[in-house]
Design a protein that fits this description.
The chain is 39% helix and 26% strand. By secondary structure, the protein is of the alpha+beta class. InterPro entries: HATPase_C_sf, HATPase_dom, His_kinase_dom, HisK_dim/P_dom, HisK_dim/P_sf, PAS-like_dom_sf, PAS_4, Sig_transdc_His_kin-like_C.
Length: 361
């Protein structure tokens, strides 16, 4: 007897009445009056890096944390039935080190099982551009001041040194000659310092280069100086070449890496990490592609008291430090139309360099 074929059909899931929210580019979260998540659109999944299926039915605090700055505002919207917009909100995601900077509008809605609509807009890029502009203005003013000061100091130093040499030739007492030698040595030291302060104004010699060649060169130099150091390489080898001055970039990365090595007292761990960054604004110009280079150490972190001034000349968190290394590094990177940022906490300090990749490359 022939068996009869009976086709089986899987029942089609009933579409969510809120599926149309997935067409929005902003992140939208719907909650009920108990602040339980009822729906997250695709934008919310991307923004928070989560799965909507996993978080649907959980309390909003599981997404935003118990200390969310939105807490009182949500109660207010529920009780008074009016909208609220919060600016520059800092949201620490529960169980993750990541912090999001957001604007959020909360609106009351009338839909089955849903009472509030939360719309989130990330403002990290906007904050970074604003911060970069302010920093650029401050640093440009500082550099001009330092440059003018260095010129004013450099010229009389030559006269002081020459006079000390002439005086030394007229002296017969060896003890007095020691004093003139001290004057000459200190004049030489100050001239070297002035030369370093003016170093970032040197003419660039741009050419195509591979950033990993620069990093490998720096790695060899740092390991020669700090043999007890561990340097981890986390490279994206698919990155294209950039156009830059090889010597300047080596000096910039070396200054940062040497600072990191000194921070871990030559016995810790440094990571060189490269990645591609897309749609980045650098020096007020939008770039489709940029190179992200990070130097990460596991040292004690930058003291909070100097964190905001760490790139200023003559500012150092280390006894005996000249306070010029990071300032020079920033000057070199800015000559390449790039930028440096730093994020530091005990156990992890990360310097991030962003360098534009030319469309032609």
């Amino acid at each position: 007897m022939k068996s009869k074929f009976i086709p089986r059909f899987k029942p089609t899931p009933k579409p969510s009445p809120f599926a149309g929210l997935d067409l929005l580019s902003t992140a939208v979260v719907l909650v009920d009056e108990a602040l339980v998540i009822r729906y997250l659109n695709a934008g919310a999944e991307n923004l928070f890096g989560i799965s909507a299926r996993r978080y649907a039915g959980q309390e909003l605090a599981s997404l935003l944390g118990d200390a969310s700055p939105l807490g009182p505002a949500l109660d207010n919207v529920l009780n008074n039935n009016w909208s609220y917009t919060g600016k520059d909100l800092r949201v620490q995601l529960p169980g993750r080190a990541e912090t999001l900077y957001l604007d959020c509008t909360v609106s009351p809605v009338e839909a089955p099982g849903v009472n509030l609509l939360l719309e989130f807009r990330p403002i990290e890029a906007q904050l970074r551009v604003t911060r970069e502009e302010v920093l650029l203005q401050q640093q440009q003013a500082n550099r001009e001041l330092i440059r003018n000061l260095a010129h004013e100091i450099k010229n009389p130093l030559g006269g002081i040194r020459g006079s000390a040499q002439l005086l030394e030739g007229e002296l017969d007492d060896p003890l007095l000659k020691e004093y003139t030698q001290v004057i000459i040595a200190e004049a030489d030291r100050l001239q070297a310092l002035m030369k370093r302060l003016l170093g970032t104004h040197a003419v660039m010699h741009p050419a195509p280069l591979n950033i990993h060649d620069v990093l490998e060169h720096v790695r060899r130099l740092v390991l020669a100086e700090f043999p007890g150091l561990t340097v981890i390489r986390d490279y994206d080898t698919s990155l294209p070449d950039i156009t830059g001055d090889r010597e300047q970039l080596i000096q910039a990365v070396l200054n940062i890496a040497r600072n990191a090595a000194q921070a871990v007292e030559g016995r810790g761990e440094i990571t060189f990490r490269t990645r591609a960054a897309r749609q980045v604004t650098l020096a007020k110009r939008r770039h489709k592609l940029a190179l992200e280079l990070q130097v990460i150490d596991n040292g004690p972190g930058i003291p909070e008291t100097i964190r905001d001034q760490i790139f200023y000349p003559l500012v150092s968190g280390r006894d005996g430090g000249s306070g010029l290394g990071l300032s020079l590094a920033q000057g070199f990177v800015e000559q390449h139309q790039g930028m440096i940022d730093v994020d530091s906490e005990p156990g992890r300090t990360c310097f991030t360099l962003l360098l534009p990749v030319s469309d032609r490359s």
